[in-house]
Every structure is written in structure tokens, then in C-alpha cells.
Predict the 3D structure of the following.
Amino acid sequence: MIDRSKHVVIVGAGVIGCTCALALAEQGYKVSVVDRNKSVAQGASQRNGSQLSYSYCDALAQPSILKTIPGLLLNKDDAFRVSYSLDPDFISWCLNFLKNCTEKKFQQNTAATLALALESKGQMLAWQNKYNFDYQQQQVGKLHLYTDAVAFDKARRASTFKNSHGAHQIPIDGQAALEIEPALQQMNANIIGAIHSPDESVGNANIFSELAVQKAISIGGGDLFLQTDVLDLSVKNGQCHALKTSNGDINGDIFVFCTGYESDQLAKKLAAKPKVQPMAGYSLTYPAGPNTPKVSLTDTDKRMVLCRLGDQLRVAGMAELGKHYKVAPAKRIATLKQNLLDRFPDAGDYTQDGEPWVGMRPMTCDSQAVITKTALKNAYLNTGHGMLGWTLAAGSAQRLVELIKQ
């Protein structure tokens, strides 16, 4: 008989926290989830790119990025910008990021994230077979599109490396890409090659988060505390005994913090150093049309992804390190929309406003998630997934379960 005597309290009801809740409930824990928003998945999980990119987990820090530093310093790249700060934590993050921009570190970090991604893939399949969740999921494959020969050659070499570690990516020429996705004929660019990942999927992270947390509570008998701000921790003898919240104390035996880029704000209390920086990403959502691509696409030049999600077209792209936005800035959204119109003028119905959105992703300097025990004996962190939170959530949840059970 399952013992529900251990109560796990999870802070953060994004896709990371909700998948943790489900994984822990399945292992016999009573699970409660706390979030300051009025519903789940209202942060970086709300309207992200929706692509489950299990094979595309390349570390952001890599040798080629060093050549772009002059342009980054002047913010000449619309697709990737840095908001500079004299904050010591930001400077330390940047210096460590540069240390990871070697080929050896790139391969190590990419292989580590790929291993976690493949674990996620397996766990998502297991949950789907078990619960038959409906979150607009489809296995449609993915095409990374290249217009530059040097960049494509680099991507081919990276795919060979990843395939040796369990990925399934196929370098193809431009004509083959058009045959896989005929809608690319509308793209205003000369595609010289692509990396095809036929096993990749799409799905609505927002819907999945809601399904996962409700299933967790039905299994484990916990509670979902929404519109609840965590104000402080009640700590005694090296353990956390309760969360002090805007709605009173919430007691527990084990505490898990899935708080994204805000994890650093808890670091002093937890005596942990997750070292994450916020990285803003943007999205637009339009009604799909007859020329909406069926295969997920990544326009590598524009750092822009497109996918069909039910009867909608979701486009997400660009990145801005070190900046926190509560509302999507008009100029950045205008840039994303212009890139979309320039590249894919007929992919969707652009007569509507596109529901502009910005999400703050927790980025580590080595692109590896932080799944760790803290100095408090019964408190854990699960953060730092960067742009791959949706992709890595299920595997991270399983790793957290194993960590807690040790």
C-alpha cells in the first residue's frame, strides 16, 4: 500500500513544477503546488514555442558565438541581444559563459542536455500511454533550415556528434526539405540545406501543465494553491518546515523550488547557487491557414521557430539575456512579426494582433539544468532549463524523484 505520509510542497506551477508534481505523486507522495498566478503555466510555459525538441539541445555557449561578440556588444543582432549590467552575478555569469565557449565544453554540455532530453522523451511517451492526455500533441518532425553553407556544415557536424549520443537527425539538401514540407515554397529565402529530426513533436505546454497537476492531485491528494505569494521560509535546524505565504503558512516535509530565473532570489535562504539569468523570448499566435507548415520549422538565420498547434500557428523567437519584462515590448514584437512576414508571408492569418507574449527563461552559463539538493536538508531546486523547459521537463522530474529518494 502506498504511504502518503510524506508531503511534498512544490513552489512554481509552470511545466517544470507540474511535471514534478505528477512524477512525485506516482511515487507515493502527497503533493501540493503553490503559485502566485491565478492559473497554472502563466510564466515561461504559457505560450512558448511548443516544440518538443529532443534532438536539438545544442549548448548556447560554443566557439562560433565568440565571433559575434562585437555585434552583441553593440546590440546589432535583432535575434539575440544582451542587456548589460554591472551586477556582480551577471558579470560572473557572463565570464563563466565565455569559459564554456570551447569545442570540448560545447560537446560535453550538449551531450549532457541530450541525455536529459532523451529521458524526457521516454517519460512523455510513458505518461501518454498511461493517461492519454490531450494537449494538442503531434509527432510532426522538425526541420532546421539553413541559408548559409558554413552554418549548415557546422550543423551537419553537430548532428553527427549528437547522433553518436542517441539523437536522430538527418542532414538533407534544400530540395529534400521542400519535399518534406511543401509549404516552404512560400519562404522568402534560398534554403541550401536542413537538419531533419523526424521524431520531434509539438504540444501545448500550458494545457499539459494543467492536466499533469490535476492528475497529480487526484493521485496524491494534495492541494493547488494559486494566487499565493511565497514571502519567506520557516527554517529550523537546517530544515524548511513551512512556506510563509500571503495566504498563511503551508507546512510540508519536502520542498521543491521550480521558480525559474527567480531561483537566484531564494539562493540565500536555500544556501544554493543556481546561477541563472533571465532570457526573454517572444511569441505570436495566429489562426492557421491553408499554407501553415505541418512540420515544425526553425529559421536559423532569424532564430525563429514555427509550428502548427491545433488550428493555430505559433511563432516564437529571438532572445534577450539579462532583461526582465512583464509585458512584451512593442519593438521586439514588431521585429518578430516583421521577420515572420518577410520569411513566411502566407503561413497564417496575420489580420489579428497575434496575442503578443514574452516569457522569461532561466538560463545557465553551460545550458545545463540545475536539479540539486540545497543546504537545507529537505529542500531541492529544479531550474535552469533555458529555452528547453518544455522539452526537458519530464526527464528533470524523474531525476528529481531519484534525488529525493536517495
The chain has a mean pLDDT of 93. The first helix runs from residue 15 to 26. Residues 242 and 251 are 4 Å apart (CA to CA).
